């Protein structure tokens, strides 16, 4: 018969097939290893950048807006370290004995100021449609990596737990990003806006000098974070919305600040575009970063595997292509659901407590060392309007 195999040839091919079948598990295992290695290497690549992002290092940041003016004090200003001692509201010495350098105790009115700032920020953000959440302070190392952080790098800012897959979070952005990990979200539910109070822990590797003194750069602090999940078409407008919300908060606090479009050299791996806000800190004699807002596009969502299902499109005859019917009573084939796409993620700081305390103490100090509490915070601080030196 035409095409009939010679028995010997057939036997040879059968044996070869068995050999290939026996080798398949090893080949599949090797493929899994290569895919894992490829994924690991791919995670090291940074995001693309927005066409308007300035090129260069931090000095090349583009100033987008300045809000308020510098106050003319008419007396020699103190920095927040001097004010903290005079008012007896910050204790670095006791914290150094208990925990080490770059830790602190807030006391009396400063402790109330922290709570006031947090509650004010949370209430403001929740009033704009953000869902308030509390989050874990410990997260898996794998989730940190998927959000764009490198917990095992030489210059890492992450505290890792020995003999454990867990790390302390440096920002609530990470646990908020993990909420929807490995999920598919209907487009109708987007954007999803969340906000969380969280403790932030950072090693601050390499930080030193006068620019890092006092409360400005510490190992642990409290922060209110905003996190958004949206479609690609929504993300640029939402970055502006986040920045405007930050601007509203800091304007209500009476701060003098500027908004910067940060250059490529200052962007973290996940950020497509980052807008920083710096407040004038007269005691330190310079601007200091108090907030940032970042559009990470699909950098984090690809790693966290967060997708959305686009809406079904309307058919040409006006009927929903998913309802299985057309005009005239003819039965139409049920359309396949549209393929899923990766969401975009954004994050922004509503309130980073220590630096806002620096800005408030230094900007609202009086000649006798007392500090006026911004009016917007007084209802959150039991009506307290002035922090006075302990001697008074």
From TrEMBL:
Keywords for this entry?
Aminoacyl-tRNA synthetase, ATP-binding, Ligase, Nucleotide-binding, Protein biosynthesis
Q: Boundaries of each Aminoacyl-transfer RNA synthetases class-II family profile domain copy?
A: 128-374
Q: Which GO terms describe its biological process?
A: seryl-tRNA aminoacylation
- InterPro entries linked: aa-tRNA-synt_IIb, aa-tRNA-synth_II, aa-tRNA-synth_II/BPL/LPL, Ser-tRNA-ligase_type_1, SerRS_core, tRNA-bd_arm
Transmembrane parts of this sequence: none
List positions binding L-serine: 171, 202, 225, 347
Q: Which Pfam families does the record cross-reference, listed alphabetically?
A: tRNA-synt_2b
The UniProt entry, under PANTHER family, shows: SERYL-TRNA SYNTHETASE
Q: What is the name of the protein in this document?
A: serine--tRNA ligase
């Amino acid at each position: 018969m035409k095409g009939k195999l010679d028995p010997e040839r057939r036997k040879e091919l059968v044996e070869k097939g068995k050999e290939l079948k026996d080798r398949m598990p090893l080949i599949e295992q090797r493929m899994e290893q290569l895919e894992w290695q490829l994924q690991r290497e791919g995670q090291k690549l940074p995001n693309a950048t927005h066409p308007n992002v300035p090129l260069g290092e931090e000095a090349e940041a583009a100033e987008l807006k300045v809000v308020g003016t510098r106050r003319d004090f008419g007396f020699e200003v103190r920095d927040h370290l001097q004010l903290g001692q005079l008012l007896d509201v910050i204790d670095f010495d006791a914290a150094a004995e208990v925990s080490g350098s770059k830790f602190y105790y807030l006391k009396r009115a400063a402790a109330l100021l922290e709570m006031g700032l947090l509650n004010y920020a949370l209430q403001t953000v929740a009033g704009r449609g953000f869902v308030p959440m509390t989050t874990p302070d410990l997260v898996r190392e794998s989730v940190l990596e998927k959000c764009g952080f490198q917990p095992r790098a030489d210059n890492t800012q992450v505290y890792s737990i020995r003999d454990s897959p867990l790390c302390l979070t440096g920002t609530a952005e990470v646990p908020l990003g993990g909420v929807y990990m490995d999920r598919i979200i209907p487009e109708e539910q987007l954007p999803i806006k969340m906000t969380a109070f969280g403790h932030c822990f950072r090693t601050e590797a390499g930080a030193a000098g006068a620019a890092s003194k006092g409360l400005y750069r510490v190992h642990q602090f409290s922060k209110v974070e905003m996190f958004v999940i949206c479609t690609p078409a929504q993300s640029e407008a939402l970055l502006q919305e986040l920045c405007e919300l930050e601007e509203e908060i800091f304007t209500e606090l009476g701060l003098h600040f500027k908004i910067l479009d940060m250059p490529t050299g200052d962007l973290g791996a996940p950020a497509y575009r980052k807008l920083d806000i710096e407040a004038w800190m007269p005691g330190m004699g310079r601007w200091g970063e108090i907030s940032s807002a970042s559009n990470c596009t699909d950098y984090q969502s690809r790693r966290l595997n967060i997708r959305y299902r686009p809406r079904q499109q309307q058919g040409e005859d006006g009927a929903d292509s998913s309802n299985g019917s057309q005009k005239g009573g003819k039965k139409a084939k049920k359309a396949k659901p549209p393929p899923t796409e990766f969401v975009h993620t954004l994050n922004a700081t509503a309130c980073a407590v220590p630096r806002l305390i620096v800005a408030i103490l230094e900007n609202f100090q009086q000649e006798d060392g007392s500090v006026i509490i911004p009016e917007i915070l007084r209802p959150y601080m039991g009506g307290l309007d002035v922090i006075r030196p302990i001697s008074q």
